[in-house]
Specification:
Layout lengths: L1 E2 L11 H8 L3 E9 L5 E10 L8 E7 L3 H9 L2 H12 L11 E6 L6 E6 L4 E3 L8 H15 L6 H4 L12 H15 L5 H12 L1 H6 L6 E4 L8 E4 L7 E3 L6 E4 L2 H10 L2 H19 L7 H10 L2 H9 L8 H20 L33 E11 L4 E10 L4 E10 L2 E8 L7 E8 L3 E13 L12 E13 L4 E2 L5 E14 L2 E18 L6 E9 L4 E8 L6 E7 L6 E2 L2 E8 L5 E9 L3 E10 L2 E4 L5 E4 L1 E8 L4 E11 L1
């Protein structure tokens, strides 16, 4: 195997390149797509050799997904690098095991492009997660796993490898949010005793993660289950080939054993052959293994929760299908019963409530840019003064890898035109100054420039010009609540009061402690790959509410945010659900938002529209209407705030 420049698509293959990679003369080839992976694509390449029988009849080419969001996700999570480096750094040191031969590998850390040219496992039969494994298949899978584990158990050099030791993004608050959606979908299909297992794990998840694994750490495939196993038939190179090494990590060595045993076998079959299967695994580790059979048993017991976690998280991140629902419920039932059979609940720490995160004052400043094309950093500010019928929002967006800056300053109200100072091309026509005078406490924004006035704000979504107007702004956002740090992305939100002055179209507005919000985010952000409804509401009783109903194609809705009652602790949200309608001109007409826990229902009465049109570097279009509104809640309270709808067309 050798590392080369990246082959991005199968159409880039040539007979000369294949000859060099495989080591035998290739006269010609054909290829076809196999599998249905979302992060990567696989192609079977049928080979015509210059000399008959001189080499493999076929190989498999694996490359990064063509979908930009999938590719950026694979790059950001380190999935592509990990799989390539498994084949280049680890697989060559395995004397045997369920790993296909690798003829060529390449990886571009800047773009996420990669390729692997692998031996073809055919003829083989893919394992079936629903039907489950036979005892013979289970023993083979565990013995082959031991051949991968044995050389790495306790290997300190692997323990220091950065690419194997990325911090897991899942924590108690995030799994709690996913679990809320999981229960909403599957509650009626979960038995009471298995519900107890799920509840206990979610409620003590952070404490469980901090527990020692109980045995030596080692190499973990991370998704060692039947759907990733190809059982060789007569004529195959190996009795078993395991695929998808993108999730390989350094961690508790018995994770793969527990995940496979808990999910691959129907409960009765697992119970009847449990001891024999553990013994087969341990014996294959060899006489020099640094762990005993009892260590294996205890390690599997401790890691039995991994399958429960995956059964909760996975269905919330993929497209819902009938077979998928059946598979995830089968997984949950088997893994929960594995936990109960091994009495693993006894090792869980006491449940605790996850504390909300707060941002670091240093994060108020700009951050070093990542290499991803759509890496950006944004600062948003808004205010609403219902007494004067006046509101506005400001955005500074830095897109260093696109060599541009976005500046948006929009002002609006029910009895005034929408005023827009918009520059998406870094022309310098708008003077904008941001100053975090007291980090996380006060922030000053000054603006001076020429904008355009629109009697019909929908014209902004059509790219039409307005009437020229001058505008200046000097405002201070003062923190009025608890700064809130997101858990799943680098971002924070701060409820504020806003004071200062705005002069626009010859009229001066003086603001004195009116409600407002500011936020700051950085990282890869693709406005054109998903929709959302964002809101920041401020109720007259002093309660601050923020929520995002995030809608990623192929995934269930994700809700993020908080409710901050006056003088009380911040409550993180687990679900945010918005119902909205739009007029024919593309502007929002009505919206109702439900925030949970607490069943807080807010009806949005729009008072001023301030939309912008977003165009991606590759020409995709997103309508980005924002509006300030008065708010009424189902329990009789009122308030004011801003709402944002991102809509891909």
């Amino acid at each position: 195997m050798h590392t080369t420049d990246v082959v991005e698509r199968p159409s880039d293959l040539t007979a000369e390149w294949l000859t060099s990679a495989i080591g035998t003369p290739i006269a010609g080839f054909t290829y076809e797509r196999i599998g249905t992976g979302q992060m990567s694509e696989c192609y079977r390449v049928e080979l015509s050799h210059a000399a008959e029988g001189a080499g493999p009849p076929s190989v498999v080419l694996k490359v990064a997904a063509t979908d930009p969001m999938s590719r950026q996700t694979g790059l950001a999570l380190g999935l592509y690098e990990r799989e390539v480096r498994f084949y280049t750094d680890i697989a060559p040191n395995l004397d045997c095991g369920p790993v296909a031969a690798c003829y060529s590998a390449g990886f571009d850390a800047d773009t996420g492009a990669f390729h692997l040219l692998l031996g073809d496992a055919d003829p083989a039969v893919v394992g079936d997660e629903l039907r489950g494994a036979t005892v013979e298949q289970a023993q083979l899978a565990l013995e082959e796993l031991a051949k991968v584990h044995a050389p790495a158990l306790g290997d300190e050099s692997m323990a220091q490898a950065d690419w194997l030791n990325r911090e897991a993004p899942l924590n108690q608050a995030l799994i709690g949010q996913l679990y809320a959606g999981f229960l909403e979908r599957y509650r009626d299909q979960i038995s009471q005793e298995h519900r107890v297992v799920c509840d206990r794990l979610v409620e003590s998840f952070d404490g469980y993660r901090s527990l020692a694994s109980g045995v030596a750490d080692g190499l973990v495939h991370g998704d060692y289950r039947l759907d990733n196993m190809l059982f060789g038939q007569p004529g195959a190179d190996r009795p078993l080939t395991v695929v998808d090494w993108q999730t390989v990590v350094w961690g508790p060595a018995m994770t793969d054993v527990a995940y496979f045993l808990g999910g691959a076998l129907p409960e009765r079959l697992r119970r009847d052959h449990y001891d024999a299967l553990l013994r087969a695994y341990h014996e294959t580790l060899g006489s020099e293994a640094p762990i005993s059979l009892d260590d294996v048993r205890e390690g599997v017991r401790r890691q039995s929760f991994f399958g429960v976690m995956m059964a909760i998280v996975a269905p919330m991140l993929v497209v819902q299908t009938e077979r998928g629902d059946e598979m995830f419920m089968t997984m949950l039932r088997r893994h929960c019963q594995h936990v109960l059979d091994t009495e693993a609940l006894d090792i869980l720490p006491e449940p605790v409530v996850a504390e909300p995160l707060t941002p670091d004052p240093a994060d108020e400043q700009a951050h070093p840019a990542g290499d991803e094309p759509l890496w950006s950093e944004s600062w948003y500010f808004d205010f609403a003064d219902p007494e004067q019928g006046f509101g506005g929002w400001v955005r500074l967006g830095l897109m260093p890898n696109e060599n541009t800056t976005w500046i948006n300053v929009l002002l609006c109200g029910p009895d005034m035109p929408t005023i827009a100072l918009v520059d998406f091309h870094d022309t310098g026509a708008i003077e904008l100054t941001l100053d975090a005078a007291e980090p996380l406490r006060t922030y000053t924004v000054t603006v001076r420039g020429t904008g355009q006035a629109y009697e019909d704000p929908a014209a902004l979504l059509q790219g039409q010009p307005g009437r020229s107007v001058e505008a200046t702004m000097e405002l201070i956002w003062t923190t009025a609540g608890i700064p809130y740090q997101y858990r799943i992305t680098p971002r924070y939100e701060i409820p504020c009061s806003v004071s200062g002055s705005v002069t626009v179209d010859g009229r001066e507005y003086t603001l004195n402690g009116v409600p407002g919000q500011r936020d700051h985010s950085w990282g890869v952000r693709d406005w054109w790959s998903m929709d959302w409804v964002w809101s920041a509401l401020h109720l007259d009783d002093g309660t601050h509410v923020h929520g995002v109903d995030l809608r990623i194609p192929g995934a269930p809705p994700i809700g993020i945010g908080y409710v901050q009652p006056a003088g009380k602790a911040l409550v993180e949200l687990q679900a945010v659900a918005a119902r909205e309608t739009f007029a024919d001109n593309g502007l929002p007409a009505s919206t109702e938002i439900t925030f949970n826990p607490g069943e807080l229902v807010a009806t949005i009465d729009i008072r001023g529209h301030a939309p912008v049109l977003l165009t991606s570097p590759d020409g995709r279009i997103s309508h980005f209407p924002r509006a300030w509104a008065t708010v009424t809640t189902a329990d009789g309270r009122s308030g004011v705030g801003w709402v944002e709808w991102n809509r891909n067309l």
